[in-house]
Write a structure and sequence with these properties.
InterPro entries: Cell_Envelope_Assoc, DUF218, Rossmann-like_a/b/a_fold. Residues 92-236 form the DUF218 domain. Keywords: Membrane, Transmembrane, Transmembrane helix. This protein is 55% helix and 13% strand. By secondary structure, it is an alpha/beta fold. The protein has two domains: 1-81; 93-242, Rossmann fold (3-Layer(aba) Sandwich), CATH 3.40.50. Strands 5-4-1-6-7 form a five-stranded parallel sheet. A hairpin with a 2-residue loop joins strand 2 and strand 3 (105-106). Helix 2 (9-27) packs antiparallel against helix 3 (31-46) and helix 7 (170-183) packs across helix 8. The longest helix has 26 residues, at 55-80. The protein is elongated and about 70 Å long.
Length: 243
């Protein structure tokens, strides 16, 4: 394999770069495409290094890879602990986290989150529900409005649903929702978070950092074909949250 890479290295480089350009044209600058591009650049650079001459560099790279591998396993294990969260506790507020819309149409992931919340909301009609999500590129309305419209279509009373329509990240979801709750006069709320299974651990962690008294969760299923890339992306997002 090593000899093959050395002999055919330039061809492999060109194929990888061509694939990256095609992926970029077809799917744009999404996480999976950019990760492929980053790995392509790393491969092109690393295969050109003479590790017999640069022993110190080799040791540094091995150390970095080792730390990365160990941290990946630990963080993914933490993410897995919340994949099937379905807490029955009574909460002061339900917070449903946004996940993108196209125009005014819910993404599959967002619809799954909203559907996962329905049983709890119907069983707790007096519990306020905060739908949290701002307006991004390609979105004709804020995610929060699309989310509220969907819940109302499912029979949820409009007065039960509160919109937080400024946030653009999970950290902002939690901070801006907390501000709404604080303004309502509740200083240490217990919340029920509804989000995708792979996203639950980080959501609870950021909720705790934002001063909620307790963080319960209902994990919505996520598409199986997107699970691997979502789990990889979550690794980097959790590292960022910890930092």
């Amino acid at each position: 394999m090593k000899k093959f890479i050395q002999d055919k290295g330039m061809i492999i480089d060109l194929v990888l770069v061509a694939c990256f350009i095609v992926f970029l044209i077809l799917w744009g600058r999404n996480f999976a495409v950019m990760l492929f591009g980053l790995l392509t650049v790393a491969f092109i650079i690393l295969r050109r290094i003479d590790y017999q001459k640069h022993v110190v560099l080799k040791r540094i790279l091995l150390t970095v890879f080792g730390i990365g591998a160990v941290s990946f396993v630990i963080i993914e294990a933490l993410v897995f602990t919340q994949l099937n969260a379905n807490d029955p506790e009574q909460a002061d507020y339900v917070i449903i986290l946004g996940s993108g819309i196209k125009g005014t149409e819910l993404s599959l992931t967002l619809k799954q989150r909203l559907d996962a919340s329905l049983d709890y909301i119907r069983n707790h009609p007096q519990t306020p529900v905060i739908v949290s999500g701002g307006q991004g590129p390609g979105e004709s309305i804020p995610e929060a409005l699309a989310m509220k419209n969907y819940l109302v279509e499912q029979g949820i009373t409009p007065a039960q649903v509160i919109m937080e329509d400024k946030s653009t990240s999970t950290q902002e979801n939690m901070a801006f929702s907390k501000k709404i709750i604080d303004e309502a006069g509740l200083e240490h709320p217990e919340i029920m978070i509804v989000t995708s299974d792979y996203h639950m651990f980080r959501s609870k962690y950021l909720a705790a950092k934002n001063g909620y008294a307790a963080e319960y969760g209902i994990s919505a299923p996520s598409p199986g074909y997107l699970k691997p890339i979502n789990m990889i992306r979550e690794y980097f997002a959790v590292v960022k949250a910890f930092m």
